[in-house]
Design goal:
Elements: E1 2-6, E2 9-18, H1 23-37, E3 41-52, H2 54-69, E4 73-79, H3 81-90, E5 97-100
Parallel strand pairs: 2-3, 3-4, 4-5
Antiparallel strand pairs: 1-2
Helix pairs in contact: 1-2
Length: 103
């Protein structure tokens, strides 16, 4: 995973699969950076995600809880179209700004 931190926005570029095997490592890496950088906005970029089960939704919801406890906001960007319906049905849209990948 690659991170970018600028202008009080921490962006986590997530690649590959998000399932119960990979979610823990992803979560730990993101949480460590949130606590270190204390961003105003956490942006989770799902543009490189090739597969996601419910762990991907849990990843968003857990990071939402952490970032809001630090007075920040969450954005989830570049959600692949084939995963967008699951994200919308989960109600994650109510937590912050959500964008669907164009291609």
């Amino acid at each position: 995973m690659v991170f970018d931190y600028s202008d009080n926005v921490l962006t986590a570029f997530i690649d590959g699969e998000i399932d119960h095997h990979t979610a823990t490592a992803i979560r730990e890496a993101i949480d460590e950076r949130i606590l270190k950088d204390k961003p105003c906005v956490l942006r989770l970029d799902y543009g490189g995600v090739t597969f996601m089960d419910s762990s991907g939704i849990g990843l968003i919801m857990g990071r939402y809880k952490l970032i809001t406890s630090c007075s920040g906001k969450i954005e989830v960007t570049n959600i692949p179209r084939n995963m967008a319906k699951v994200v919308k049905l989960s109600g994650v849209e109510k937590l912050g700004r959500i964008t669907i990948k164009e291609n």
